[in-house]
Write a structure and sequence with these properties.
The structure holds two protein chains of two kinds. Chain A has one helix and nine strands; from the N terminus they run αβββββββββ. Chain A is of the alpha+beta class. In chain A, strands 1, 3, 5, 6, 8 and 9 form a six-stranded mixed β-sheet that branches. Chain B has one domain: Sandwich (Immunoglobulin-like). Chain B contains no helices and eight strands. Classes of the chains: A alpha+beta, B mainly beta.
Chain lengths: 139, 109
């Protein structure tokens, strides 16, 4: 079979693209989730407070708390999890404050993001680094 | 998995009108994430509570969309305004279609 230089290039490019795809998908899943939430709008970097432990011994249950005065919804994303979405909070008219605490799973040491949608339509984001001693995804 | 699911909610019995109170909720649920494998290497299908809603006299206080990364026995703590006496209703929606509910009354005084 003839294997010309052109064929070799095409095969090579295809292989390179294929090799990069999963890597890209992993790195940008969080960015995609943020973009899906904000619709590509500008995101301010103040206005949200995310409280998470610096070191979590057990990734199966990491207590976090998020607060964003004036927010109507807040999403939490874990950049190092197989699926970055963790939880989305929506606050109604009777919410006493735009604040909530819960417990989440983290697969390993990673950054946790909180993105808030304010009632005026703007967005704000913050992140916190959590070191995880034992990952929480089983497997 | 509808067996053994037990919601627990902590709401103060009384509050002054207009007060902001703290609510804590916990529901026993294994929250199978869909990432784990059994000993034969088969993925255990996802089975989680996907939505939680808290309302006071029919008006929304807080709702949450849960994903696989919420821990076993999902716990929430949040604050609510109490304009009048009434009932808090809590609702958890399971992937399998089950609905778990709880209700707490609060008095003014």
């Amino acid at each position: 079979m003839d294997f010309t230089r052109r064929d070799a290039l095409i095969v090579g490019t295809g292989a390179a693209v294929a090799a990069m795809l999963p890597l890209r998908a992993f790195a940008s899943a969080t960015e995609d989730a943020i973009a899906a939430f904000t619709g590509g709008a500008d995101v301010a970097d103040s206005g949200v407070t995310l409280t998470a432990p610096e070191i979590a011994e057990n990734g199966n249950t990491v207590p976090i708390s998020v607060s964003a005065p004036g927010a109507e919804s807040i999403i939490i994303l874990a950049s190092g999890n197989p699926n970055p979405e963790v939880v989305g909070f929506n606050f109604g008219p009777l919410a006493g404050s735009q604040e909530a605490s819960t417990r989440i799973r983290l697969a390993g040491t990673q950054d946790v993001y909180a993105v808030a949608k304010m009632s005026d339509g703007s967005f704000a984001m913050t992140k916190a680094s959590v070191k995880v001693t034992i990952g929480g995804c089983g497997g | 998995m509808a067996e053994g699911v037990k919601p627990r909610v902590k709401v103060p019995r009384k509050a002054a009108a207009g007060d902001v109170i703290t609510i804590k909720t916990l529901i026993s649920h294994k929250m199978e994430s869909g990432q784990r494998k059994d000993k034969d290497g088969n993925v255990i299908p996802r089975s989680i509570i996907h939505t939680f809603t808290c309302k006071f006299n029919g008006e929304l206080v807080m709702s949450a969309n849960l994903h696989g990364a919420i821990s076993t026995n999902p716990y929430f703590q949040f604050e609510a305004k109490v304009p009048e006496a009434g009932d808090f209703t809590f609702e958890w929606l399971d992937d399998d279609g089950s609905v778990y509910t709880d209700q707490k009354s609060i008095a003014i005084g």
